[in-house]
Structure formats: C-alpha cells, structure tokens
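Regression test case RT-17, inverse folding.

Input:
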C-alpha cells in the first residue's frame, strides 16, 4: 500500500511541476489529469494521495455504503460520472475526456460550453471538490485503506 501511495505521489508531483504557473485547465485533455492537478493544487499532496484509497468509494472501486461524508463525496462523484456516461454525450469514458477550467481562490470554474460533455465532466469534478471543501476537516485516518469486505 505504501508503494501505491508513493507512485501516486510521484505522478501527482509530475503533473504539478510540469504545469504552467497560471492556474488554468488547458494543461492536458484528460479529465483524470485535470482532476489530479486540481486536487493537488487545492488540497495538497497528502490529502490528494490519501483519498486514492479512502473509505468504500474513494479510489478505483466503489461499493457498499459510504462510511463518512468524505466517502459520500466520492460516491456522488462516481455516480456523476455514471450519469454522464448514461446521457451519451461523451465519445468515451469521462475520465478520458478533457475539459477546460480555471481555479480562483481554490474554487474550480468550468469554462467549456454549458451542457457539453466537457462541461459535464468538469462539473462532476468541481462538485466533488466543493464537497471536500465542506467535509475535509472530518478526514479520519482510520478510514484509509479499509478492508472493503468488512466495512463496506
């Protein structure tokens, strides 16, 4: 598990250090790169990497019942991506779809055309980050790397 956090931290550091100083989302055209950059920029390395394996929904897979409000933010984010897929606006999975954004005062602003696939994907990430703003103080180390079979 430590290796996974180390690799994730290295990838996130590469994203941030290779990005221009201005805080615009034209860095890449992949949502997961945009999302990673936003998380690092707003919440920092420790929180960003710890949320890669937090609770029942934060990370690669989501199942069961969220164990706290942060985990609920992750579930809503997963469901949001699922809704974008169901609407059929995107040619491929939302994580592979890029978008444009601006960060100002730690708030993400989506700048693509309202209602477009790019805008919808950006809004999923924005809503997640807004949710984290509301609940990040509730972060609980005991909910990192949980046994999903037992707790979810």
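Golden output:
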């Amino acid at each position: 598990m430590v290796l996974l956090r180390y690799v994730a931290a290295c990838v996130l550091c590469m994203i941030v250090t290779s990005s221009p100083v201005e805080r615009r989302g034209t860095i890449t055209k992949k949502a997961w790169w945009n999302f990673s950059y936003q998380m690092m920029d707003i919440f920092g390395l420790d929180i960003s990497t710890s949320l890669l394996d937090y609770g029942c929904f934060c990370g690669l897979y989501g199942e069961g019942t969220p164990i706290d409000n942060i985990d609920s933010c992750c579930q809503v984010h997963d469901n949001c991506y699922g809704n974008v897929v169901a609407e059929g606006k995107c040619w491929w999975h939302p994580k592979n779809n890029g978008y444009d954004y601006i960060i100002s005062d730690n708030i993400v602003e989506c700048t693509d055309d309202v209602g477009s696939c790019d805008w919808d994907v950006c809004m999923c990430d924005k809503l997640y980050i807004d949710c984290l703003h509301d609940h990040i103080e509730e972060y609980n180390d005991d909910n990192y790397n949980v046994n999903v079979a037992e707790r979810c």
